[in-house]
Amino acid sequence: MGKSSSDGSGETTVTTRYAEYLETLHESFLYTVASERSSAIDDSPFADYVALGFDDAFFGAAYTITSFPTLYDMFGKFMAGLDIDTLYSQIYEDTVNAPEIDDLVAAETAILDDEIQNTSLPRLMLSHRDTNSIMSSTYIVDQAILEANKLKAIDKFSAELRYRMIPVATERWKAHMTWNQQVVMDYAQIMKFYFSTKLDTTNLNYAIAAKDKLWPFTVLDYERAALGSLQGASTTTTDEGKESNSFLSTVTSVLSVAAMFI
Predict the structure, then answer these.
(1) I need a surface site. Which of 15, 26, 58, 194 has the fewest CB within 10 A?
(2) Whether the predicted pLDDT of 235 surpasses 80
(3) 3-class secondary structure, 13
(4) 24-59: per-residue pLDDT in tens?
(5) What's the half-sphere exposure (Cβ side, CA atoms, 13 Å) at 138?
């Protein structure tokens, strides 16, 4: 209900009043809120928050983002400065002319030498002895033919073995190129994750610090709501810590675009 009064100067003052039992309950409620506010105003719930040490948690003690190469350095090392022809030549040499290939050729040579010495040459000697031509030039020619056939067999074995290793060298080269590209992409994703997480963590730390500093003022929001409780509910919002959201979105978008072009 309303009540009007005049102070004699012609001005009228209108006072809004409520039922007596409501005003009595509201007054008691306000005393309770004031008492609780007095005890809570110096007891911020954010005072004991310990700011997160992001770099130590992410990299380990004594390491920072500057301890690692930049994305441009990583790209230059693994992609931009890569000579694919030189890389293929190195892989070809390490695969086709590897020491293991030479060892296989040497082993095949030893097997053929053993077969000639223990099988082919004794048979040749017996054959020429039967014809009584062991001391003739024909025997020497036949020995030379055996040796020539051995050399041809070794050359053929070596050529076929190295030829079959060429596709292996090509696959190794392709795998190396793919690995280089993947390293740069993974590095870009790690940097994106680092900066987005760092901004989120820094944002949280500053938000809690702001809430702690503003606590003596924001705690009064509840008392203000209590004062206006007879007139209906009120809504109070705070925006501490939200200022960097647009910057976080910008950095994340830039890193995402950079990763797409790698």
Answers:
(1) 15
(2) no
(3) strand
(4) 887 888 778 777 767 666 777 788 888 877 787 778
(5) 10
| Residue whose tokens read 């797409």 | 260
Cβ contact 2:17 at 8 Å: yes
Amino acid 40 reads: A
Residue 7 tokens, joined: 């102070």
Report the candidate in 240, 241, 209, 212 with the shortest Cα–Cα distance to residue 42: 212
Tell the residue number behind the tokens 């809690």, with chain if given.
208
Residue ranges of domains in the chain? 18-260
Q: What is the DSSP letter of 68?
A: S
- Chain centroid to Cα 146, Å, comes to 63
**8 Å CB contact between 150 and 112:** yes
DSSP three-state, residue 43: coil
* Of the candidates 57, 88, 44, 10, the residue with the CA atom closest to the CA atom of residue 197: 57
d(CA 202, CA 48): 17
- Rg over CA atoms, the chain: 45
Establish how many alpha carbons lie within 13 A of residue 185's alpha carbon, considering only the half-sphere containing its beta carbon: 9
CA–CA dist 106, 183 (Å, integer): 39
Establish how many alpha carbons lie within 13 A of residue 186's alpha carbon, considering only the half-sphere containing its beta carbon.
7
Q: Is 180 left (phi over 0), alpha (psi -120 to 50) or beta?
A: alpha
